[in-house]
Each structure stands twice: as structure tokens, then as C-alpha cells.
């Protein structure tokens, strides 16, 4: 499995957890529990942000790598044509 796929799975899990915490927060009358679930939901916001950021970096790295490979292939072909 690729790093990007792992990151996407982690992102889906974090988003699911955030939704679960939000549901629990609204389904209880216990103020202390509400605060705990709200805090946990905010933690998931940070996790989601970090994962999205890393997914963006990974996608950019893949684009750069693909571009570099294409450039290398073109350069190799050009060198073969000159020989």
C-alpha cells in the first residue's frame, strides 16, 4: 500500500472519529462529558489538518517525481538520437 493510501485511510478514520465525538457530545446532558467530547473533536480537527497537509505534500512529491522521470526519459531519448 502506498503512503498516500495510508494517509487517506487515516484521514477517513479521523473524520469518522470526529463525527462520532460530535454525536456523543450532543447526545449527553453531562456537561463534563460534553466538554471532553468537544475537546476530542478539536483534537481530530488538528489530526485532519495534519493529514490533509501531508496528503498535499505527498501528491506534490508524486507530481515532481513523475515530471522528473518524464524529463529523464526525454533526455535519454535525445541523447540516443545524437549518438
Description:
With 83 residues, this protein is mostly helical. It has one domain (14-82). The chain is 92% helix and 0% strand. The protein has 2 helices and no strands. It is rod-shaped. The protein starts with a helix and ends with a helix. The model has no long low-confidence stretch (mean pLDDT 87).
Quick summary of this structure?
With 83 residues, this protein is mainly α.
Task: List strands and helices in order, with pairings.
Layout: H1 3-26, H2 31-82
Helix pairs in contact: 1-2
Annotation keywords:
mainly alpha; single chain; 0% strand; 83 residues
Instruction: Give me the count of strands.
Output: 0
> What does the largest sheet look like?
none
User: Low-confidence spans: pLDDT under 50, at least 5 residues?
Assistant: none
Net shape = rod-shaped
Cα-atom Rg, whole angstroms? 22 Å
C-alpha termini separation: 41 Å
With helices defined by DSSP (H or I, 4 residues minimum), what is the helix count? Answer: 2
Q: Summarize the helix and strand pattern as letters.
A: HH
Mean pLDDT: 87
What is the helix fraction of residues, given as a range? Answer: over 70%
- Number of domain modules: 1
Strand content: under 5%
Structural class: mainly alpha
Amino acid at each position: 500500500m502506498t503512503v498516500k493510501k495510508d494517509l487517506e485511510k487515516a484521514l477517513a478514520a479521523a473524520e469518522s472519529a470526529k463525527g462520532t465525538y460530535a454525536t456523543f457530545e450532543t447526545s449527553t446532558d453531562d456537561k463534563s462529558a460534553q466538554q471532553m467530547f468537544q475537546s476530542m473533536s478539536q483534537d481530530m480537527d488538528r489530526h485532519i489538518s495534519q493529514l490533509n497537509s501531508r496528503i498535499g505534500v505527498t501528491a506534490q512529491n508524486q507530481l515532481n517525481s513523475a515530471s522528473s522521470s518524464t524529463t529523464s526519459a526525454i533526455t535519454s531519448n535525445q541523447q540516443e538520437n545524437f549518438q
